[in-house]
Amino acid sequence: MTAVMICIASLGALAQPVDCWFTLQVGTSMVAPDNNVKTELGLEKDFGIAGALGFEFGFTYKNLDVFIDISEEEAFFKSNDRSLKTESMNISLNFAYPFYKNDRYAFAAELGLGTFLNDIKYGGGLVFSNLIYDQKYNLYIPAGVSMRIKQGESHSVKMGLYYRHSIETGSTKLFGGDKVDNFPLYKLNSLLFKIGYVFAI
């Protein structure tokens, strides 16, 4: 109901036909940047791969896609008898414009700005202690290309490859506790691949 109301409001404001859509998607991210979290917590290596699950909601106006992307990523790593698990919640506002399209395929360039938060759980072996770091209000910039393959009049498959740049703008706290100074930001993995199914609303 909320999605329909937003689409109706957009239609009235723009006074032009607006196509609204919703995407369910899964993905994987890789190529970790220089995080330094591993060094801070005594691990030898950094994360390489993380799984992602999320959705997009947006509208298309004069070939320009405007959409909100919300997703959650989770990664686990073990080294030197120490374990590290991160859960990242990401939300971004994105714009996409097709540079090539035909009756079946569309290729688009995408750019956005978002914020993300991290829960970093640390422990020995496979058992996590109560040491949980909470990072909020950091920014990231996603940029990439996507491809849509039409599956009918109102459905399509979407695949995309993105580069993400993390920017430290927030703070780190012990979960439910005091602020931790000089603790490095756990950055989002640089490369993200997503695949999803698009439903017209």
Helix segment tally? 2
Largest sheet: 8 strands, antiparallel, barrel
Helix content: under 10%
* Strands, count: 9
Shape type = elongated
Q: What is the overall pLDDT average?
A: 86
Category from helices, strands and their pairing: mainly beta
Strand order of the largest sheet: 1-2-3-4-5-6-7-9
Gap from first CA to last CA: 10 Å
CATH architecture: Beta Barrel
Number of structural units classed as domains:
1
Assigned CATH class: Mainly Beta
CATH topology: Porin
Ranges with pLDDT <50 over ≥5 residues? none
What quaternary form is this?
A: single chain
Q: Gyration radius, to the nearest Å?
A: 19 Å
Helix and strand sequence = HEHEEEEEEEE
Range of strand content? over 45%
List the helices and strands and how they pair.
Blueprint: H1 2-14, E1 19-30, H2 37-41, E2 49-61, E3 64-79, E4 82-101, E5 105-124, E6 127-150, E7 155-167, E8 171-174, E9 191-200
Antiparallel strand pairs: 1-2, 1-9, 2-3, 3-4, 4-5, 5-6, 6-7, 6-8, 7-9
Overall description:
This protein is mainly beta and 201 residues long. It has one domain: Porin (Beta Barrel). It is 9% helix and 66% strand. It contains two helices and nine strands. It has helices at residues 2-14, 37-41; strands at residues 19-30, 49-61, 64-79, 82-101, 105-124, 127-150, 155-167, 171-174, 191-200. The chain has an eight-stranded antiparallel barrel with strand order 1-2-3-4-5-6-7-9.
Summarize the structure.
With 201 residues, this protein is mainly beta. It has helices at 2-14, 37-41; strands at 19-30, 49-61, 64-79, 82-101, 105-124, 127-150, 155-167, 171-174, 191-200. It has a single domain (2-200), classed as Porin.
